[in-house]
Amino acid sequence: MQRLTVSEILENIANEELFEAVSEDYSFTLKIESYEPYVCGAVHDGHQFRKELWEKCLHTEYDRWFEEDPCTKEFVKTHPIVIAGCDSRFEYDLNRDPENAIYEDAWGKKLWKTPLSDREKAKSLQKHSNFYLVVHALIQKLEEKFNDVVVYDMHSYNWRRWDREVPVINLGTSNIDNRRYGDLVENWRFSLSQLQLPHNIVSTSAINDTFQGNGYFLKYITQNFKNTLVLATEFKKIYCDELREVIFPEVVSAIERQLQHKIKEHVAQFRRSVKE
Asked: Which among 257, 248, 229 has a CA at the least distance from the CA of 78?
């Protein structure tokens, strides 16, 4: 993996170079092993939280981990194009628009002992801006090459705060063109319902049950690119113990191994569908 400036990453995309890089400020990674009509994204995978903010933050390291989406990059790591955040959503949230990307409070609890300075906010928002410069260039290049593109927008969610049974996988579709892509959404939901998971976990799946797909990553791509479908795919945190901060690697591995095939199968369905 190389360490590259945003300008170098953009130049590589423009020239259709193959590369794996971390941004110069270590805020995100991008791997392009080959140019394909699909992308895997994990915007909430990151846990880094820059040191100058430590003393100001009222939330503990565990509080932050609890609300992040650990292992979502791991789920899709073998695919040819993977983009993922490295920083915690508590520093800035890549799945919110720039005006709301820096939290004042988080999940009912005030975040900062003292307000962040304009300089501190600007440093975080520059990272947010750089990420979307790269996202824009990447999707633009793929639409130029393939016309139609699909993005697998990987997330996870805490299930213990729900007072009802919730699905192992939820697809959020309220901000995509469901008349155009409805069958592909249902194909993806059904495929995920067939995952074979350890410990007799039944891979239930639903659409707009717990979340509706209101994230900025999905909205930004959908609003700026007319031929790219973004599938906001949320895994219930059955792959970890939320209360003890313990990852279950056997569950993570099972998901990752099966997604190697399921994503490729769905991309093939997507390509057939858009040609019809």
From this structure: 257
Contact 202, 140 (CB under 8 A): no
Q: What is the pLDDT of residues 22-44, one digit of tens each?
A: 999 999 999 999 999 999 999 99
Element (H, E) at 258: helix 249-275
The identity of residue 88, as a single letter, is S
Global pTM?
Answer: 0.97
Question: How many CA atoms does the CB half-sphere of 201 hold within 13 Å?
Answer: 25
State the pLDDT confidence band at 159, using cuts at 50, 70 and 90: confident
DSSP letter at 117 equals P
Contact indicator for 27, 9 with CB cutoff of 8 Å: no
Quick one: pLDDT at residue 203?
Answer: 97
Nearest-10 crossing angle of helices 6-14, 118-146 = 10
Nearest alpha carbon to residue 72 among 42, 34, 99, 110: 42
51 SS3 class:
helix
Burial of 114 (0-12, 13-18, 19+ CB in 10 A): exposed
Which domains occur in the chain, in start order? 2-275 (3.40.630.40)
pLDDT in tens, 164-206: 999 999 999 999 999 999 999 999 999 999 999 999 999 999 9
Helix H or strand E encompassing 110: strand 109-110
199 dihedral zone (left: phi>0; alpha: psi -120 to 50; beta):
left
